[in-house]
Amino acid sequence: VQLQASGGGLVQAGGSLRLSCTASGLTFSHYAVGWFRQAPGKEREFVVGIRGYTNGMSYAASVKGRFTISRDNAKNTVYLQMNSLKPEDTAVYYCAADYGRILSTLINSDYKYWGQGTQVTVSS
Fold first, then answer.
1. In degrees, to the nearest 5, what angle opens at C-alpha 99 toward C-alphas 46 and 5?
2. How confident is the model at residue 115 (pLDDT cuts 50, 70, 90)?
3. Can you tell me the distance from the alpha carbon of 4 to that of 41, in angstroms, rounded to the nearest whole number?
4. Which residue among 16, 49, 101, 102 has its CA within the 20 to 30 Å range from the CA of 110?
5. Are residues 76 and 68 in contact, defined by beta-carbon separation less than 8 angstroms?
6. Residue 42 to residues 13, 39, 89: CA-CA distances in angstroms?
7. Distance between CA 7 and CA 41 in Å, rounded?
8. How high is the mean pLDDT of the chain?
9. Phi first, then psi: what are they for 73, rounded to 5°?
10. Percent of the chain's residues with pLDDT above 90
């Protein structure tokens, strides 16, 4: 199983980016997927998650209304659309996948599979 995260980059405050997480070796639609981020000197934190099968979603308060998670099952890919970006969104973003999570456990970081991370830098 491999998760490949991509789409990071440098953007000005107020701009947008779309991150992708593409899976190989599993049927992504059956798995919960979480996006986490880690800024320099800080702990990894939950950003958003989506359940397998039902696609129930959970967002961190800091990104609600600005970020949107979605799936393209045909491409075995999950997207994170990030709008109205702020300098405090600067971090390495990781996608992760796990099977059988309920909505309340999307926030927990003990996912079975992790991608390699993609850097997002928001300039002021």
1. 50
2. very high
3. 24
4. 16
5. no
6. 21, 5, 12
7. 23
8. 97
9. -65, -35
10. 100
How do residues 33-81 score in pLDDT, each as one tens digit?
Answer: 999 999 999 999 999 999 999 999 999 999 999 999 999 999 999 999 9
Distances from the Cα of 54 to the Cα of 60, 91, 101, angstroms: 19, 29, 11
Integer distance in angstroms from the first to the last C-alpha of the chain? 37
Please give, one letter per residue, the 3-state secondary structure of the chain.
Answer: CEEEEECCEEEECCCCEEEEEEEECCCHHHEEEEEEEECCCCCCEEEEEECCCCCCEEECCCCCCCEEEEEEHHHCEEEEEECCCCHHHCEEEEEEEEECCCHHHCCCCCCCEECCCEEEEEEC
Residues 20 and 7: their CA atoms lie apart, in Å, by 6
